[in-house]
Design a protein that fits this description.
The chain is of the alpha+beta class. The chain is about 20% helix and about 30% strand. It is built from 13 helices and 51 strands. Strands 1, 7, 8, 9, 10, 11, 12, 13, 15, 18 and 19 form an 11-stranded antiparallel β-sheet that branches. Strands 2-3-4-5-6-20-17-16-14 form a 9-stranded antiparallel β-sheet. Strand 22, helix 3 and strand 23 form a beta-alpha-beta unit. Helix 4 packs antiparallel against helix 5 and helix 10 runs parallel beside helix 11. The protein is globular and about 75 Å long.
């Protein structure tokens, strides 16, 4: 046996290496290729932790990925061939190719097996895609028994681990496709395909199957842990830019504000009540009737002066985003211009009727058509009307509804429709990536003074690079739905896209016939807003009944007071939240974290679907069952009434680690690795702070930027060493990308009980020269406090 060992700096001329007992393989600039049983297989390293695998019968396979933006690095690898096995090894991972079967396995640099393809499971079958000769493709993998995996986007079944699941991966209202999973073992697999697909995990294997593909194409990533996998995924598909500070405040919306006076009146009412608010959203039909659908102009007579409306909102120190869609009515200017270049699709979509009477009247079809977001000229036209009709007015962001898009009564001929990039079948799942990316890219080109902020209903791999926050779709109001939102958001976050939220209170109120007068719904809403406080976006929205705080009574009423308390809590945590957002952008981190991300060695959290970490310090245990309503004695129709006479409790699991503190009392440190009983009155969501955390607490404000952070409370939770970086910048532009920001590092030495505040790094316009830090070392019983003046120089504070 001839054994060839070579070190590749990954550049240079290709060479062929032949073993006497195995087929040939060929060195390339970033790995190897080999022909096995008529299939061309390529292993290409993109970095020391990322390898791309392609398998295709085509003589040459060239694909410009819609998701992947990374160009392969120059990576040092060692290539060995022995007994028909070619092994490529970087400093982090090894990829083994069987030259007889074409099967591939992945190992750590130490030789530990991470993942294997199922033997001879690569399946590539000819497929006629609307007249184009291509393939249907499938690849199976073998996972360890009991090995949990996470990700795959948004699928609202209530499970956290994705083992023993099957999903039809097609974009939908409440389902978002991101074909990425990663394991508790610290590796991830990204299946780079946009066509309708099926993910299956069962005793036979873990399989991706796609209707259309010129070949099998996937990326293997090794990060050592979940954060490492997500960091590699974002290195591959794009980093998440920072959102403005104000987007992390409280948002109010409804379906829909019917006039500009009504919308401005909501903001004014919040200001009169002194309840914090930063964002207001205008939903659909500001354009008028359905034949004018998504005209991107204020043609509804109830909005006679949109310039004044936006100015009034800004004058009240709030921001406004507005609904835009992926489809256009036949009487709109965008429709006519898009039709001229053949950039409208023949799909049945929303709204189905030109009449606004419900249910839709098929005798009066709306004529609304989806636009071809894959077409660069169509994206230009789309932005032209957004810019002229809305952005020029000072609108602060975009609510891109139906971005999957809505597609009803799907027919095979629908999927045959020729888009700019081929059949709709070929690129179906990438639609939200293209539509959202078109708006984000154009706005970035138009202005760097206002950060892109997009709220969207659908997402695909790579969408994190476009400044988008995805919500969970038009969900119903129920306790079961609330319960499912937790693992739904966690798996979405584990899919590499860090910003997610849900309609607080649920979109449809069909489960509560008496709407807001139903005591059970009021309790559900209070619990949901507690959960929403610890999501990347805190946004109330829904149909059937308005959800503004004053719809739930007034101060002194239990529900009103609970809602206000959670909104104020959100604002007090803004310095912490903004710091997390910086970690997301600069260090590939994740806001909403399943416990397995931070405690992978604790098997009890591997499939725990009712708790999560918000950042790396706060454990959140949402309450997802009714506690304070019961049937009224002697009442008809099972009328429910509120009963607040007893404080109810829930069970909370505290993971193994240095210990925990109850956020609300901080009376003593609690041990980890155990389940405790948590008090859960209506205005409390069980929260626990990890020992070793340093938590900055901001001032009470009416909106995010009302007060500078010149007098912050710094809470220290002892029991382990801890670190915090206080991040600040200009809040709503892209100067941070030019280095215009500051960071103040804090380090807690638990053994010495000393807090070290490092020298401030960086500068930006408007930065505070000096400030007060009120330092509190917990627990409350026996804790100590000191107030110091910090001027940017290093200093230590002993306790």
């Amino acid at each position: 046996m001839f054994r060839q060992i070579l070190t590749v700096a990954i550049l240079g001329v290709s060479s062929i290496y032949v073993s006497a007992q195995a087929p040939a393989y060929q060195r390339t600039s970033h790995g190897v290729t080999a022909d096995v049983k008529g299939v061309s297989i390529e292993i290409r390293y993109y970095s020391p932790v990322i390898a791309r695998i392609t398998k295709t019968p085509l003589p040459s396979f060239k694909k410009e990925s819609l998701s992947v933006t990374k160009v392969p690095d120059s990576t040092k690898i060692v290539i060995r061939e022995k007994a028909g096995i070619v092994t490529l090894a970087s400093e982090k991972i090894a990829v083994r190719l069987d030259l007889q079967t074409g099967d591939i396995a992945f190992e750590t640099a130490r030789g530990e097996t991470l993942l294997k393809e199922k033997p001879e499971s690569a399946d590539i079958k000819p497929f006629d895609d609307a007249g184009s000769n291509t393939f249907s493709v499938s690849q199976a993998f073998l996972l360890d028994k009991g090995e949990p995996i996470y990700g795959l986007g948004q699928h609202q079944r209530g499970n956290l681990s994705q083992r023993n699941q099957q999903y039809h991966l097609v974009q939908g209202n409440t389902d978002d496709v991101i074909p990425l999973f990663h394991s508790v073992k610290g590796y991830g697999v990204f299946w780079d395909n946009y066509s309708p697909s099926v993910f299956t995990d069962n005793a036979e294997g873990t399989v991706f199957s796609s209707e259309v593909g010129d070949g099998i194409d996937y990326y293997f990533m090794y990060g050592g842990n979940a954060d490492g996998v997500i960091a590699a995924y974002r290195d591959l598909t794009g980093q998440a830019p920072m959102f403005p500070l104000w987007t992390f405040g409280y948002w109010q919306s409804r379906e829909r504000y019917k006039s500009q006076d009504e919308l401005v009146g909501v903001v004014r009412k919040y200001r009169e009540l002194g309840v914090p608010l930063d964002g207001i959203i205008q939903d659909w039909q500001y354009w008028g009737n359905n034949y004018l659908w998504n005209a991107m102009e204020f043609l509804n007579p109830e909005f006679p002066n949109p310039v004044k409306m936006v100015g009034d909102v800004h004058g009240l120190n709030a921001h406004m985003i507005i609904s835009i869609w992926s489809s256009f009515g036949p009487q709109t200017k965008p429709y006519r211009e898009l039709d001229k270049i053949g950039a409208l699709m023949n799909l049945k979509t929303w709204p189905e009727s030109g009449s606004e009477i419900w249910p839709p009247n098929p005798d009066y079809p709306s004529g609304v058509r989806v636009y071809d977001a894959y077409h660069p000229a169509a994206r230009d036209i789309y932005w032209k009307y957004v810019k002229k009709g809305l952005f020029s007015l000072g609108i602060d962001g975009w609510w891109m509804d139906s971005s999957e898009p809505d597609h009803f009564d799907v027919k095979p001929s629908d999927m045959d429709h020729r888009t700019y990039l081929g059949s709709f079948r070929k690129v179906r799942n990438a639609y939200p990536l293209m539509s959202v990316g078109g708006v984000a890219g154009h706005q970035r080109s138009a202005s760097s003074d206002k950060r892109v902020f997009i709220l969207t209903r659908s997402a695909f791999a790579g969408q994190q690079r476009y400044g988008a926050n995805t919500w969970s779709g038009d969900i119903t109001s129920s306790w079961e739905t609330l319960k499912k939102q937790i693992p739904t958001g966690l798996n979405f976050s584990m899919s590499g896209i860090p910003y997610w939220n849900s309609d607080i209170g649920g979109f449809f109120l069909s489960n509560f016939k008496r709407r807001l007068s139903d005591p059970e719904y009021r309790e559900l809403y209070a619990r949901w807003i507690g959960f929403g406080t610890f999501c990347p976006m805190m946004r109330s929205h829904g149909t059937d009944a308005p959800r503004e705080i004053y719809q739930f009574g007034q101060r002194g009423d239990k529900i009103f007071d609970a809602i206000e308390k959670f909104i104020r809590l959100r604002y007090s945590l803004l310095p912490y939240i903004y710091g997390i957002s910086r970690d997301v952008t600069a260090r590939g981190s994740t806001m909403m974290r399943p416990l397995v991300m931070d405690f992978p060695a604790d098997k009890k959290v591997w499939d725990l679907n009712n708790e999560f970490m918000f950042g790396r310090s706060i454990l959140v245990r949402p309450v997802t069952e009714p506690m304070y309503v019961k049937p009224s004695i002697g009442a008809r129709d099972s009328v429910m009434v509120e009963d607040f006479g007893t404080v109810k409790t829930v069970e909370t699991y505290l993971p193994e680690g240095p210990g925990w503190y109850d956020f609300w009392t901080a009376e003593k440190k609690l041990g980890g690795g155990s389940t405790i009983t948590s008090p859960a009155p209506l205005d409390v969501i069980p929260l626990y702070i990890k020992a070793g955390s340093i938590l900055p607490i901001g001032p009470q404000v009416q909106y995010a930027t009302e007060k500078k952070w010149d007098s912050l409370e710094i809470r220290i939770y002892p029991g382990a060493d801890g670190d915090l970086t206080l991040y600040e910048d200009e809040n709503d532009n892209y100067n941070y990308e030019k280095g215009m920001y500051s960071e103040i590092p804090f380090h807690w030495n638990d053994k010495k009980h000393v807090l070290t505040i490092g020298g401030r790094k960086g500068t930006f316009e408007g930065m505070l020269a000096t400030r007060n830090f009120h330092i509190v070392v917990l627990p409350a019983a026996g804790g100590s406090e000191k107030t110091i003046v910090y001027g940017g120089k290093p200093m230590t504070v002993s306790f």
